[in-house]
């Protein structure tokens, strides 16, 4: 048995972690995000602890995508819809794209 650390493992973000990262990337607190999205602050806290997609209903995911500008496909899967790379940062819509383009791809 070697004492050498093994490299090559890339930790995957949970759904809740992606939701929190997207919200925090906007600079909004949970309270501010609640006002923008209409999602109760208590619910935001619960969603940011979610581990499974089944824990967050699609309308909430849509609100989160709208509120953060982050594609729903990334929120749901952690895969950047532009290149398919897992957890490759927080993709945002550019000026030529519409949220509808990403949601329909999900």
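-> sequence recovered:
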């Amino acid at each position: 048995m070697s004492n050498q650390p093994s490299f090559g493992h890339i930790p995957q973000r949970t759904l809740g972690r992606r939701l929190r990262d997207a919200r925090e990337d906007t600079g909004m607190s949970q309270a501010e995000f609640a006002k923008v999205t209409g999602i109760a602050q208590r619910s935001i806290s619960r969603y940011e602890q979610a581990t499974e997609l089944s824990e967050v209903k699609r309308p909430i995911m849509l609100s989160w995508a709208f509120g953060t500008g982050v594609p729903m496909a990334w929120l749901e899967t952690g895969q950047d819809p532009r290149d398919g790379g897992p957890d490759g940062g927080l993709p945002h819509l550019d000026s030529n794209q519409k949220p509808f383009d990403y949601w329909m791809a999900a």
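The mean pLDDT is 80.
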